[in-house]
Amino acid sequence: MPRPRLEWWNAKGQFQSYPLKDREVIVGRDEVADITLPCDPVSRRHLKVFKTGSGYSIQDLGSTNGTFLNGQRLTQAKVLAHGDSITLADNQWTLHYQDAEDGQSIEDSNVTVFSADKETSQLVTVPVVVESRPAEISELDKVSFLLDLQSQWGNAFSPEKIFEHILKSALKISGAERGFILLRQGSGFTYASGIDSSGRQMSESEFQTSSSAVERVVAEGKPVFMTEGLDDAMAMQASIVAMNLRAVACLPLQGYSSSKEATDLRGILYLDSKRFMYALSGLDHKLLAKLAEEAGHVLAKVELIKSFEDRRKMEQELALAEETQRSLLPHTLPQVSNFRIRAFAKPTRYVGGDFYDFMLRGDGELVGVLGDVTGKGVPAALLSSMLLGCLDLQLRAGGDPCDALQRINETLCLKQASNCFTSLFLFTLDPVGRGQFVSAGHPPAYVYRKATRTLDDLQSTSMLMGAFSSVTFEAAPLAIYPGDILLVYSDGLTDAENPHGEMFGSTRTEEMIHAGASGGAEVLEQTMLGAIRLFTQDHPQTDDITLVIVERLA
């Protein structure tokens, strides 16, 4: 049964009808009015129609030119009766009240109305031009939209084209005037695609939706269908009133999460109209839901492709960073007549914070360094590369190691924006094995004494680099004799974990030195690396592992 309603003809002679519900209806020139009459003599908020215990009443809202009910100017609220004529704007607009249970709509026949000419006030008969709804398409055509979409989905993939087809199909099935696809971005949703009922692409600047409908879908994860008028709660929402909407459909676009066990809300299919949409059948609901499901698959595939592309780009950047860092490490180990040198480095990622280097100075002095920048990945690698460059410049010029470290530390403390520190072990050895070492907060190095088969540990002599600019670096004497081996390592060695969370530790390190050092530098290197592999059992590496081994030959 039709509801009580207001009926009128618009400026083009087209029939208009507005069903009345429990909430009040504002008539006026304002665009946000429920019924907008674009005419200067009409006030912005001219009159209101509201429900009372006796039916529907009308009240003028202080309009400039007044409201006339059946030719009499309204001075107070009046109860409406079937067939009442409401005139405003000097007879330029006339609305008719039609009761649900009484009489014939003015849409059904020619209607006799007063002429706008006040002088003659003659009766004229005007034919009604009815604004008809678009003809509904057949159920077979509706199903064909879905089959066409699945064909496109299978043969080619273009998100823009798929979105366009989904929106066109949804508009045809529902009779809506506008359709949008929204994508999740952070905690909200943003414009992805929009089309109107004529097939025109709608720009992002035209993107405006009922926020209340979208919020309901987000909260409940279920479709919202109000295609034959809005419920009272929805009709009172500010966004609905502002856009003068009469029908809304809003469906969630869901796709499987990475776990494949649950679906995520990836987007929203939104349809609306300032008229009414079709009275959707059960099949229509299912077809729209299937379209939304297909759109969810598209979004899932888009995200998957983007994640692959992002990962590939990241891997390319990391590979470039790895190549850059490796180019800064020694390509070949120095060949020194009295020493055999071995080195090993394995970062936790493509690049890491550990570094090492060797150089021979003019007097035949061997200089070696092993450092460990706190942190992992690209930031640590950048700092380690900078330190290598600074050390090379300072030490090749013949500078004192402690003075060089002092200047570099001051620069670090001055320039660093983050709390990134560096432990470092630097040593010098002349051709007969005499020299010195500086250990800036580094784990103890070891010297294996072949003559006594004992270990000397070389403890830290200074604080970490980058902590305080006032730190003073001090050197301690170092001497290795024929057959002795110096082992310097980063804490990734002792901190390596097995599947049970147990660390390799200092005790095992010392045991492996005793087990392999008697065979020389190469045997010791293989012994240490083999022990680490056996202990960790391929458990993921938690820190960079770096070794430097120097054996005195004669």
Jot down its keywords:
Phosphatase 2c, domain 1, alpha+beta, Tumour Suppressor Smad4, 5-stranded mixed sheet, 554 residues, Beta-Lactamase
Tell me about this structure.
The protein has 3 domains: 5-98, Sandwich (Tumour Suppressor Smad4); 139-304, GAF domain (Beta-Lactamase, 2-Layer Sandwich), CATH 3.30.450.40; 329-552, Phosphatase 2c, domain 1 (4-Layer Sandwich), CATH 3.60.40.10. The protein has 11 helices and 28 strands. With 554 residues, it is an alpha+beta fold. The longest helix is centred in the middle third of the chain and has 47 residues, at 282-328. It has helices spanning 139-155, 159-174, 211-220, 232-235, 238-243, 282-328, 377-396, 401-415, 491-494, 505-516, 521-536, and strands at 5-9, 15-19, 25-28, 35-36, 47-52, 55-60, 67-69, 72-73, 78-79, 85-88, 93-98, 111-114, 123-126, 178-185, 188-196, 224-226, 247-256, 263-273, 339-346, 354-360, 366-373, 422-429, 434-440, 445-449, 454-458, 476-479, 485-489, 545-552. It starts with a strand and ends with a strand. The protein is rod-shaped. The chain has a 6-stranded antiparallel sheet, with no helix packed on it. The chain has a 5-stranded mixed sheet with strand order 4-3-5-6-9, with no helix packed on it.
